[in-house]
Design a protein that fits this description.
This protein is α/β, with parallel strands linked by helices. Helix content is about 30%, strand content about 25%. It has four domains: about 5-55; about 60-165, Sandwich (Immunoglobulin-like), CATH 2.60.40.10; about 180-190 and about 235-430, Rossmann fold (3-Layer(aba) Sandwich); about 190-230, no CATH class. Strands 11, 14, 15, 16, 17 and 18 form a six-stranded mixed sheet that branches. Helix 5 runs antiparallel to helix 7 (about 300-310). The termini are far apart.
Length: about 425
Amino acid sequence: MKRGTLSSLTTRGRGFLSAGLTSALCAIVLGQRDLLRVGLLLIALPVITALIANRSRYLLSCSRETTPARVEVGQGATVTLTLENPGRIPTGLMLLEDHLPYVLGTRPRFVLDQLRPRWHRSMQYVVRSEVRGRFSIGPLSVRISDPFGFVELNRSFTSRATLVVTPQVSALPTVRLSGDWSGTGDNRPRAFAAAGTEDVMVREYRLGDDLRRIHWRSSARADELMVRREEQPHQSRATLLLDTRTSAHRGSGPASSFEYAVSAVASIGAHLAREGFTVRMLTDGAHGSTSDWHERGISGPAEVQLLLDSLAVMQTSTRREFAGGGEQHSSGLVVAVLGDVNPTDIAALSRLRAGSTRSLCILLDVAAWARADNVGAGDLASVQSRAETLQRQGWTVRIANPSDRLPSLWGDFGNPATAALSYVPDAGVTEGSPAA
């Protein structure tokens, strides 16, 4: 008998085996045949059960569905497990346990008394995360027991599911942003194709593209799907800049200034995309040509999800300066969400906004997050002086602290009478005069 066969015995099975061996030994010493029969029976029950259980091939299949597959921070998703027995052998008692990252909650466990041939069972549980990220759910572990409870077999499936937890997206008010259109005219963008004129330039196929725009001749030549790129005489563009430098943020966990910045970029990007903008996102380490970034903009719901997916896994960087600040000619609207910046950073940002029609900045008062996290903030520069310097460079600045709501800050950008806010760390928020 293989050693692995006996290793599958449960405590009850080992107890029966030990009792049978003891009874058989005592029967031999005392010469009691009846006791020997009892001992042999006690030995045979767990041994035969273990042999049958290990030689039996349980055909179990498992499918997992996560609804929805993408949720915001704090929202729940329902995971549905479907276990099916396509074989001809009924299973015994089963204990199911699904593996989860600790941020999604405790591991769910289910008990099934029996699964007959051709039967299936469905189970559901809810997962919720307070932190963003991309999490793997699974695999499912199954512990099968025989009807007598002598043997327990452990099996594990390989299938997994992915849950994407995106940053919290706030609904922003619609504001009038003067100079937000790149190009001329006041009308919404209209493709030349609508008038019968079509640019023959092509690009690679991306999720969400209309299949009717596939250019088959170019696809055959490039050996991949290519679509026609329709030029637009009027196009609304926006560039989002997210400061991801670790040194520029304070606090830890979901209450940190970095998480506030990520949520702000997600909300602004989704809002502008719904307003018809072609949006790109830059970080402190981004570089490349402006046309490439705008060709990959978020112009529809599918590409909004691509932005949220990238922000879901966004992490802080170890850079000290803006590596992508030297990029020129950022046409259209520029919106920056910044942490602690210095004069060198401000100079780089002034080069970034060259060519833009309007530049907006949400400047985080990271000292407020430092105080909330019990970190000394004596070496932090004055947030008001940084805001005034940015205003002199042509930015429209709003200062944010942990208690400020993003819809209110965004609404202030549409009010030309509202000046940059002068925030005194321990005295609240007061109105000030705009810098020259």
